[in-house]
């Protein structure tokens, strides 16, 4: 099927099934995926009308369906362990919209730390873990929504490797049979930030504060848009379609200013192993290549992220910079946390900014949010919990 | 193990050839190593290149040279400088993937139990333990001021009254302190089978035998529950 591809520079319109780059055709992997399903090689977790999908355009102009309901939350280790307001903000929005979802214990990490950090895994192990988690959502009749960019990048890569390699499929299928599961692959690998992106205009309807004087700078996650880049959302109205649109899109929809800075394309300095054992590299990168340009060039009020490792690295490494004369500071939070904050979610109970290291209070004050009241209420809530009251949860869990 | 003046371990030419052949046999290798213009755009955009003696252009050029000695020269410290951000892969005009090549070389280094890999991975024992034995790796109780003094005084917030603060997170799956989320035992058991069948446990046994024993004890406990 011919797919119209709009030239990003506006020079020409072409029709093509695929793009040629350096003699290699970048095919839309979905066609092969459906062919394998037709042959009975695997099952596909389809996005149906039940998921109320919204279409977005990817790098080459291909369409990507983003399911907006009947979702299975696939967790992020770092978000759950270190930035709890990240998934809580997402679920808070889903409750507002009446989204059908399941957040459950029956899932493992993608284990891609063992891929990019320690190399103590291999493609069979990584692909089998991916399929195991996909199959769990499949058996519940839900579509997997990936919270972590590392999982997102890893799962996109594993999907491609599985589609392209029969030997890998056979090996993973053998392992799945051992654990009573089947070889399933989702029609799309969908990151939570893509859900936020396609829901951005609905989210903006909930806005409680005027953001016209708030300057945001966006840090896009490498494993979102640099790994399998053809599968990432672009929009001709955002950066003229030349940069990924997610996160920037929701900030703009909320009425904030999005400022450019010279090191937009740089990573955060996380480095997987560097953030733990070569921290001088991570912190130097944070201050020299991200925070200082964001503040000096853009006068940023807040850095908006779309991933776990980036949020941690950029937030935690600013304090130590003072020892070397780096006085620039900017609060860091994910797109969905920023959106929740300005849509009236509680600073402490929902957005949970109290876990963040770099001071976010000046941002709240500039927006007009009474964080002190929120702090008092949260402390009172903690005392109630200490006295034995049951926690107020976003959902019931059996 | 002896090392040359560049800190690279000294091994026979046959062994270097064996390692290079192992890399080339990886089914991802051909996808990652294509024609290289030597344009250097990968290195120009490479984040760790700004802080380390590391160049994705050299990674590609060494592979393209077909000289096992040049590839061997990257196997010790060199491959561990990469941030795995894949900036190189995205901007390469020929769709090479130096970051992917690095992943292949690291996996060989770990699988073979090279001393350099053991040294690099030693500080990750706790992360490896959590991830392999329990199914996720960053637990709230790992964020301690002693471990992260450079993250500032506020980091202590995360270690004071932690169980109460975790209970106040309105997601039941997160109301634990020793794991990022409370992984169900059935999920952990399935993960163990995957790790056994895919050879992941074997890799850990090679690179850290003591850690492997601890993990196996936990695996046995969970399986017997």
UniProtKB/TrEMBL annotation, chain B:
Superkingdom: Bacteria
Q: Which UniProt keywords apply?
A: 4Fe-4S, Iron, Iron-sulfur, Metal-binding, Oxidoreductase
Residue ranges of the 4Fe-4S ferredoxin-type domain?
Answer: 25-57
- InterPro entries, from UniProt? 4Fe4S_Fe-S-bd (IPR017896), 4Fe4S_Fe_S_CS (IPR017900), HdrC_iron-sulfur_subunit (IPR051460), Helical_ferredxn (IPR009051)
A molecular function (GO) term: metal ion binding
Q: Which GO terms describe its cellular component?
A: plasma membrane
Q: Which Pfam families does this chain map to?
A: Fer4_8
Q: Has keyword Iron-sulfur?
A: yes
Recorded protein name is Heterodisulfide reductase subunit C
Q: Which PANTHER family match?
A: IRON-SULFUR-BINDING OXIDOREDUCTASE FADF-RELATED, IRON-SULFUR-BINDING OXIDOREDUCTASE FADF-RELATED-RELATED
């Amino acid at each position: 099927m011919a797919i119209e591809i709009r030239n990003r520079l506006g020079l020409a319109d072409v029709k093509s099934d695929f793009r040629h780059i350096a003699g290699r055709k970048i095919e839309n992997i979905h066609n092969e995926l459906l062919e394998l399903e037709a042959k009975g090689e695997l099952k596909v977790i389809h996005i149906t009308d039940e998921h109320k999908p919204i279409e977005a355009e990817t790098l080459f102009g291909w369409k990507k369906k983003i399911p907006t309901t009947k979702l299975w939350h696939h967790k992020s280790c770092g978000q759950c362990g270190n930035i709890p307001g990240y998934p809580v903000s997402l679920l808070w929005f889903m409750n507002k919209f009446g989204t059908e979802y399941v957040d459950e214990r029956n899932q493992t990490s993608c284990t891609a730390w063992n891929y990019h950090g320690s190399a103590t895994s291999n493609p069979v192990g990584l692909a089998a873990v991916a399929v195991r988690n996909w199959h769990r959502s499949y058996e519940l009749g839900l579509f997997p929504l990936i919270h972590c960019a590392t999982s997102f990048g890893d799962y996109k890569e594993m999907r491609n490797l599985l589609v392209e390699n029969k030997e890998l499929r056979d090996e993973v299928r053998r392992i799945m049979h051992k654990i009573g599961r089947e070889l399933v692959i989702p029609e799309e690998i969908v990151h939570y930030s893509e859900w936020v992106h396609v829901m951005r205009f609905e989210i903006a309807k909930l806005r409680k504060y005027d953001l016209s004087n708030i300057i945001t700078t966006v840090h896009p996650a490498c494993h979102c848009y640099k790994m399998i880049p053809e599968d990432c959302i672009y929009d001709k109205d955002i950066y003229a379609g030349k940069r990924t649109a997610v996160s920037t899109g929701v900030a703009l929809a909320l009425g904030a200013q999005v400022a450019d800075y010279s090191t937009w394309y740089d990573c955060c300095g996380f480095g997987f192993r560097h953030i733990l054992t070569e921290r001088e590299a991570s912190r130097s990168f944070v201050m020299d290549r991200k925070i200082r340009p964001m503040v000096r060039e853009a006068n940023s009020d807040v850095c908006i992220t779309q991933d776990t490792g980036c949020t941690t690295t950029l937030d935690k490494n600013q304090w130590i910079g003072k020892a070397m004369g780096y006085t620039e500071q900017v609060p860091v939070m994910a797109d969905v946390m920023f959106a929740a904050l300005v849509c009236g979610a509680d600073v402490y109970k929902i957005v949970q900014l109290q876990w963040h290291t770099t001071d976010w209070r000046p941002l709240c004050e500039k927006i007009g949010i009474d964080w002190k009241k929120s702090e008092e209420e949260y402390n009172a809530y903690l005392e109630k919990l200490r006295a034995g009251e049951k926690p107020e949860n976003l959902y019931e869990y059996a | 193990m002896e090392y040359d003046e560049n800190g690279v371990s000294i091994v026979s030419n046959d062994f270097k050839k064996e390692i290079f052949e192992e890399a080339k046999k990886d089914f991802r290798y051909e996808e990652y190593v294509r024609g290289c213009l030597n344009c250097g755009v990968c290195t120009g955009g490479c984040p760790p290149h700004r802080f380390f003696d590391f160049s994705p252009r050299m990674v590609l050029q060494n592979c393209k040279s077909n000289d096992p000695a040049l590839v061997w020269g990257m196997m010790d410290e060199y491959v561990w400088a990469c941030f795995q951000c894949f900036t190189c892969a995205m901007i390469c005009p020929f769709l090479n993937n130096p970051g992917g090549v690095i992943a292949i070389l690291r996996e060989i280094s770990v699988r073979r139990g090279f001393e350099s890999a053991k040294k690099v991975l030693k500080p990750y024992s706790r992360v490896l333990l959590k991830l392999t034995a329990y199914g996720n790796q960053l637990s709230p109780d790992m964020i301690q001021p002693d471990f992260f003094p450079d993250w500032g005084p506020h980091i202590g917030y995360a270690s004071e009254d932690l169980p109460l603060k975790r209970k106040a997170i309105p997601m039941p799956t997160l109301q634990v302190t020793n794991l990022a989320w409370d992984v169900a035992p059935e999920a952990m058991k399935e993960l163990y089978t995957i790790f056994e069948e895919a050879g992941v446990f074997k890799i850990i046994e090679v690179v850290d035998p003591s850690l492997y024993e601890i993990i196996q004890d936990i695996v046995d406990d969970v399986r017997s529950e």
